[in-house]
Amino acid sequence: MTAEGKEKLEQELEDLKTKKRPEVIERIKIARGFGDLSENSEYESAKDEQSVVESRISQVEEMIRFADVVDANDVDEDEVSVGKKVTFLEDGDDDPETYQIVGAAESDPIAGKISNESPIAQGLLGRHMGDKVQITTPGGSMDVTITKVE
């Protein structure tokens, strides 16, 4: 995971513990005041939300605890690695594609961040600017040339 990804997880954890958890606890207190808990949909809803929040807190804490933060500066400047942006051109295509390779927990393909476990990233990791690479994806193979690593 990148340092940026770990920082986002730490911010999410802080938000869950200091804002979300207290909000849910307050909803539970209010719902208890409505009477019979066996027929109290507000109480059930708040308890369900509490379960989701607590589960996410545990999940994020574990992700942070076992995070392996990768420093993209520890590899050659033109080598594709986690944390770096790579631009490549598929053979027969005039439009270059650019992705940042990140840890699985922080991937967001719409934002141009792909998981280091994805087929495209697996085909590019360890390669250098100028390398021609054949990448096998579920949709078939593609031949690309790495044009930029930053």
From TrEMBL:
UniProt keywords, alphabetically: DNA-binding, Elongation factor, Protein biosynthesis, Transcription, Transcription regulation
GO terms of biological process kind: DNA-templated transcription elongation; regulation of DNA-templated transcription elongation
Boundaries of every Transcription elongation factor GreA/GreB C-terminal domain copy: 77-150
GO molecular function, one term: RNA polymerase binding
Transcription regulation listed as a keyword: yes
SUPFAM superfamilies documented for this protein: FKBP-like, GreA transcript cleavage protein, N-terminal domain
Matches recorded under NCBIfam families: greA, PRK00226.1-4
Membership in a protein family: Belongs to the GreA/GreB family.
Protein name according to UniProt: Transcription elongation factor GreA
